[in-house]
Design goal:
Structural class: alpha/beta
Keywords: ATP-binding, Membrane, Nucleotide-binding, Transmembrane, Transmembrane helix
Main location: membrane
Strand order of the largest sheet: 6-7-8-3-9-10
Strand content: 5-15%
Protein name: Multidrug resistance ABC transporter ATP-binding/permease protein BmrA
InterPro entries: AAA+_ATPase, ABC1_TM_dom, ABC1_TM_sf, ABC_transporter-like_ATP-bd, ABC_transporter-like_CS, P-loop_NTPase, Type_1_exporter
Number of helices: 20
Number of strands: 10
Subcellular location: Cell membrane
Distance between the termini: 124 Å
Largest sheet: 6 strands, mixed
Length: 628
């Protein structure tokens, strides 16, 4: 009877071993696979904050506000591990009771309680950690979103939008497990492994030596393989990133690609990147298979050694049968903490890579003054003065080289000149998107560098050259800069920009969706929408960069009237290549190669400025007498 029972126990033990080993293998392979689809497990290097220890501290810092939940989760996890670790000893009591013929009720009930309690505790701490992880990720994402939206324009100029977006999406997701489950899995794995070793030595020192010796050999082999796996993972992620960058490039200019008949060329370029990702994936599959085999040996070899040697010693009477069974179950149990240790370490490595990338965002300069309160802006129209302003983009020649001029209060001042003369750059400085290298710009006699950016942008409205529209409705775009505008004010700007006819023709009126980047609207409609949005904000100064370049003659005349009306209550600065838009301006500033070439009215410049006369002649705006 006892022999049959022992055989049954051993057979079941072998089955349990197979299940646990497979679970660990699947876990390991999935962990490696997830790493290749996230961002590379970059090793934190460089400054103390981005060194490995610094990254770990930062990682712990993300979870510091949730230390109570994490501490409770850790206690529950350790309690679950203890319940699981006690199960082999309870099984030994059951076998001993069978051998002695004593009552089984106590040992069996104890074993059942340990199994149930261990399972319930595992479910509880998993739920607690997952919930806490979601809170950590939300906190990090909220911080990143706020920071990215406040990045200074020079930082945005040198950063890829897709890469910045990835910091909020995939990188922050890697923190989800790293800040909670990974750390606790490592602690639980170490504690469970140490506990299992103590139990094994309590049961039999000889079998313990065989088990730990075989695991040490496997550990050395894994230590050699892990750096190679990390390099393959990084290579694969770089290739996947190239695929995304190629698609983003092509899809972002889809109309240009199609109009140029370049679909096949773009497909070939992206396919090459995908092929490289496949090759890296092949290398990853090779190492994953190798790791799987080694992990299989890591748990199968100790089991076979213990079974062989322990069976021999049990047959000679130097080892109790119940001790052998308990030891085998302890070996099986070790697969769980070791698996958690491997998974936790890998997940932590992913998290450290994410910390490094998120830290890079935290190092980027942001505009810290855009959220400061601004006093109500009146209807007074201030004068604008530019004093010897110099500015240069990184790695390029001077865009502005000592520019000086004045725009009178309540007037219309136009900036004209060839492309690249510095007109749009000057507007960017007026909005404090950039800071001049020297010189200053004043509004009503006050240096804008002494104002907060919030105040500057509240006082100075801006209509950009490409007149972007945000995905949403026409009304949401109009109210974007002035969410508190009244319906009467909205109706007024619609009439002034001749958008009222368009809105009336549309079935959904103001609720009409403008499409991604406003592509559902024509270029002229987007320009009028941008102008209406700026006028609705009722700024003291209005900057208009090529605001009528895509309008037909009829709508251009209407917009000129709207500009004239705006000039009655604010100072207007216009950039225009189409000189018909600015011939009636109070003052025209001619820029050439970053310098002021001439200033005056249209008639004055026709006589005094060869460059302006050349621009006017090219657009048939020069009277015959002057042209001669």
């Amino acid at each position: 009877m006892n022999a049959v029972l022992v055989n049954a126990v051993l057979v079941n033990a072998v089955l349990v071993n197979a299940v646990l080993v497979n679970a660990v293998l699947v876990n390991t392979v999935l962990t490696i696979s997830r790493t290749t689809h996230g961002h590379p497990a970059n090793r934190c290097r460089g400054t103390p904050r981005t060194g490995t220890i610094g990254c770990v501290r930062t990682l712990l810092g993300y979870a510091k506000d949730h230390w109570i939940a994490l501490s409770v989760g850790l206690v529950i996890a350790l309690a679950s591990a203890a319940a699981n670790l006690a199960q082999p000893l309870a099984t030994k009591s059951v076998v001993d009771a069978l051998a002695d013929g004593s009552s089984l009720s106590g040992p069996v009930v104890t074993l059942a309680v340990l199994v149930v309690v261990g399972s319930l505790l595992a479910a509880l701490y998993t739920f607690l950690l997952d919930r806490t992880a979601e809170k950590v990720v939300f906190s990090v994402r909220r911080q990143l979103i706020g920071r990215l939206l406040r990045l200074r324009i020079p930082e945005l100029d040198k950063s890829a939008p897709g890469d910045l977006t990835a910091r909020v999406t995939s990188d922050s997701t890697l923190l989800q497990s790293a800040t909670t489950q990974a750390l606790i899995s490592i602690v639980k794995g170490v504690a469970g492994g140490v506990g299992a070793v103590i139990v094994m030595f309590t049961l039999d020192a000889r079998l313990s030596g065989l088990t730990l010796g075989s695991l040490a050999v496997v550990g050395v082999v894994m230590g050699v393989l892990l750096p190679k796996i990390r390099r393959v993972i990084t290579r694969a992620q770089e290739a996947v990133g190239a695929v995304g960058a190629g698609l983003d490039r092509a899809l972002g200019a889809a109309r240009t690609v199609k109009a140029s008949g370049a679909e096949a060329r773009e497909e070939a370029a992206v396919t090459d990147a995908a092929r490289e990702a496949m090759r890296a994936g092949f290398a990853g599959a090779k190492y994953s298979a190798l790791v799987g085999g080694i992990m299989n040996l890591a748990f199968s070899v100790p089991f076979l050694l213990v079974l062989g040697a322990g069976g021999l010693w049990a047959a000679t009477g130097s080892l109790e049968l119940s001790t052998l069974i308990a030891f085998l179950l302890t070996v099986f149990y070790m697969t769980e903490p070791l698996g958690e240790l491997v998974q936790g370490t890998t997940t932590l490595q992913q998290g450290l890579g994410a910390v490094k990338r998120i830290h890079e965002v935290e190092e980027l300069a942001i505009e810290t003054d855009v959220d400061q309160p601004v006093e109500a802006v009146g209807d007074g129209a201030p004068g604008i003065a530019v004093h010897n302003v110099k500015f240069q983009y990184a790695g390029r020649s001077a865009a502005l080289d000592g520019v000086s001029f004045e725009a009178p209060a309540g007037g219309r001042t136009a900036l004209v000149g060839p492309s690249g003369a510095g007109k749009t750059t000057l507007f960017a400085l007026l909005q404090r998107f950039y800071e001049p290298a020297s010189g200053l710009i004043t509004v009503d006699g006050v240096d804008i560098a002494k104002m907060t950016r919030a105040e500057v942008r509240r006082r100075i409205g801006y209509v950009e050259q490409d007149a972007p529209a945000l995905a949403g409705t026409i009304e949401s775009n109009l109210r974007y800069a002035a969410p508190d505008a009244t319906d009467e004010e909205l109706t007024e700007v619609l009439r002034a920009t001749r958008l009222d006819d368009l809105v009336e023709r549309l079935p959904d009126g103001l609720d009409t969706m403008v499409g991604t980047r406003g592509l559902a609207l024509s270029g002229g409609e987007r320009q009028r929408l941008a102008i209406a949005r700026a006028l609705l904000r009722r700024p003291q100064v209005l900057l208009m960069d090529e605001a009528t370049s895509q309008l037909d003659a009829r709508n251009e005349v209407a917009l000129r009237e709207a500009i004239d009306q705006a000039a009655e209550r604010c100072t207007v600065l216009l950039i225009a290549h189409r000189l018909s838009t600015v011939v009636s301006a109070d003052r025209i500033v001619v820029l050439e190669r970053g310098r002021v070439a001439a200033t005056g009215t249209h008639d004055e410049l026709l006589s005094a400025s060869p460059l302006y006369r050349e621009l006017a002649a090219s657009q048939l705006l020069v009277p015959e007498a002057v042209e001669q």
